[in-house]
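Progress against Task 2.4 (sequence-to-structure conversion) is shown through the following example record, which the project officer requested during the mid-term review.
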Amino acid sequence: MRDRLDKIRAQVLEAIDSTSDEKALEDIRVRVLGRKGELTLILKTIGRLPLEERPEIGRLANRLKEEIEESIRARKEVLRRLYRRSQIEGLDLTLPGRCRPLGSLHPITQVMDEVCYIFERMGFTVVHGPEIELDFYNFEALNIPPDHPARDMQDTFYIDDKVLLRTHTSPIQARVMETQRPPLRIIAPGKVYRCDSSDTSHTPMFHQLEGLMVDRDVSFAGLKGVLTSFVQQVFDPDTHVRFRPSFFPFTEPSAEVDIQCVMCKGKGCRICSHTGWLEVLGAGMVHPEVFRHVGYDTERFTGFAFGLGIERIAMLKFGIDDIRLFYDNDLRFLQQF
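Structure tokens generated for the chain above:
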């Protein structure tokens, strides 16, 4: 009998809370508390229960009856207040409710999270650093002294002679190596800033992710293995990868990493300039001079580093041909992700 009373309580109270008019409330009252209602019949049969059960069941049934009556009164008062308000404000309570649109992560955030997850599964740890950086960490600690021509490769926002907005996330690597001894396996995601005019492929602010691995016997073959695995996870397992010789002041040897064009599958199109290949990141073995700046023994340790643009990866993954779409805040675009 107790289980039956509990079942009636759960069903009836839920039904009362979900009613939208007084007629439905009255139907519930009659069904439960009327002359032939469920609870009324239980009260009438208490006398046929064993003598020792009668007091408790009677007390529980009467308490439930009071609870249901009070819930009906309270719900009726709520409905009457809503009705009076609708008459004053001209609300139509019979109209269906309006669903508020749910937001989602920005496509850049989605790609950043995916890229970090892939490298974390390979054993890399995510680290962060300041966006307002010292010239020393942004350039000099990375083998780019004041008179180095590589500084012309990056148009920099200077705050004063020694402070700037970081042009890449590589300064985080220098900061980490300065305070930690090998072995290291880190990735450094974040915003970077350059004096670029806004066009289909450039913005003054964008996102990069740098990676660094330092240990004994780290090789270029290991670098190729890590980046090939990354590319095939973020794009497609059948994606072809190639490494081209290049130059970066903080790595030697250095390479550009290309993938088979995701648009034309290597046949040649406007996106890949009819070459069948797309550049996605740069990489190389850490230059010994960078190790000397942070006090690493270049005879004992070697390392590799790599860097990629998150917007570049996102544009290729989603087939987007204008980077500015990520920052125009047009909901028609953002709601597709």
